[in-house]
Amino acid sequence: MESIDTATGLSAPKSISTDRVRDIFSAIAKRYERFNACSSLGAYKGWLRLMSEVADIEPTDVVLDVAGGTGDVAFTMAEKFHPQRVICTDLVPEMLEVAKEHRRRGRGAGVDMDFAVADGQALPFEDGSFDAVTMAYGLRNMPCREQALSEVMRVLTPGGSFTCLDFSTPHNALWNAAYEVYLTHMVPLWGKIITGDDSGFRYLADSIEAFPDQAGVAALLTNAGFAHVAWFDCTGGIAAIHVATKPIS
Ligand SMILES: C[S@@+](CC[C@H](N)C(=O)[O-])C[C@H]1O[C@@H](n2cnc3c(N)ncnc32)[C@H](O)[C@@H]1O
After folding, report:
1. Alpha-carbon gap, residue 69 to 165, rounded angstroms
2. Are the CB atoms for 59 and 150 separated by under 8 Å?
3. pTM, whole model, 2 decimals?
4. Which domains does the chain have, with CATH numbers?
5. Is 55 in the pocket of ligand 1 (CB under 6 A)?
6. Ligand 1 pocket residue status of 40, Cβ below 6 Å
7. What gap in Å lies between CA 171 and CA 177, rounded to an integer?
8. Which of 10, 52, 56, 75 has the fewest beta carbons closer than 10 A?
């Protein structure tokens, strides 16, 4: 399957993007949440709340969070739905260490949870192991997106749900222009203030610009075989939450 450079969207060896995200997220793991809160001006919490409102998760479900980072999505789903079990995975161990620290401090509402280092493009789980899969800001960072979606499809049970949040494209031209200025100038500045280095945050802006818009992500999901593909815009399309289902047969 095709691999791209996630900063440009152009064809490139997988290792370029994988090595870069490893470097960025291992270095910023302890400051990631502060950066997120500041650079999104707090909006990411509202997007996460909407994600939990549209996610199709039942108390009997076993849930997988891919690219789970410091655990925000996994903990939110555990606390809201009290599912049978939640597994939070990420490529970068340093991000998961922060998630485990949150767990030790009581997050997760006592739900059975586990944490595992795993590449979203090669998930170490049996076929049909999960009733629901979630992913926030993960697909954009993966150079083999078709492979990642095929892995989500493989590990879901038939009828299982996939909920995917990521940055997207505002529809209104003025809003889009303002957003682009914020993204290319303010986000690297936040990065420099909070982490002392702006290079990873220039990558964030580039990867968002190179990422498909709402219809483009929906097409990726449809091409991967998902059914009932739909999306919800957040803050005028700055982000979007895609929902999809693994067909029953
Ligand atoms: C912007 S963070 C999002 C973390 C978390 N989902 C959240 O909402 O805060 C992106 C995460 O994707 C992870 N990631 C990037 N490429 C990955 C891959 N191929 N497989 C699994 N995780 C990956 C990074 O390590 C990082 O933790």
Report:
1. 14
2. no
3. 0.96
4. 14-245 (3.40.50.150)
5. no
6. no
7. 10
8. 10
